[in-house]
Amino acid sequence: SQKIEQNSEALNIQEGKTATLTCNYTNYSPAYLQWYRQDPGRGPVFLLLIRENEKEKRKERLKVTFDTTLKQSLFHITASQPADSATYLCALDPFAYSGAGSYQLTFGKGTKLSVIP
Amino acid sequence: NAGVMQNPRHLVRRRGQEARLRCSPMKGHSHVYWYRQLPEEGLKFMVYLQKENIIDESGMPKERFSAEFPKEGPSILRIQQVVRGDSAAYFCASSPPLLAGGQETQYFGPGTRLLVL
Questions:
Q1: Which of A50, A101, A103, B36 has its CA 20 to 30 A from that of B115?
Q2: Which residues of chain B have pLDDT under 70?
Q3: Using CB atoms, which residue from B31, B55, B91 is nearest to A43?
């Protein structure tokens, strides 16, 4: 069966360290994978999208990798701050293919990150 | 540019009543998606609409649930004869037309938290 799994439900990390979150998927061949941030009582906010032909993508203190052989994406936050505390969701579109948009995002359950001062 | 708007933010209904959830997409977005987030679960796709058309409702329960996106006005998710199991957060997302850059990124609203007593 198809699955998208975020290995840790919760991750505690000291301020200033690098947080690494994992997203694994099975029986999908996604053209891209996305990461979102969700704060309590709020909707998800898009952070980064990485395509199947990209190994790594960066945005400020965020870095995402995508390994289609391992069927895994890693999400890194460097120099973490208490304000980074939130739930981080990975998502993929099971019906998308390269070059075309699609619409039905499948989400992992998320990893709740707590950055301790 | 205002983001995706949803109202009400909180809705309490008794079993058997009807719930109406509204979503106004971002300006210029013609694609609307509804997701449901049950407690301790990930976001689940329900339905994808364009103006006056339901494109994909494969994630929506066959009974009691309906969605529309009229030519004028917000998108409506309607739940008839609510039951306790309908208690969840319902999120609406929108995206621009494909020609304007694709539908890969979805922009989420703050959600409506439905509580069925």
A1: A103
A2: 1, 98-103
A3: B91
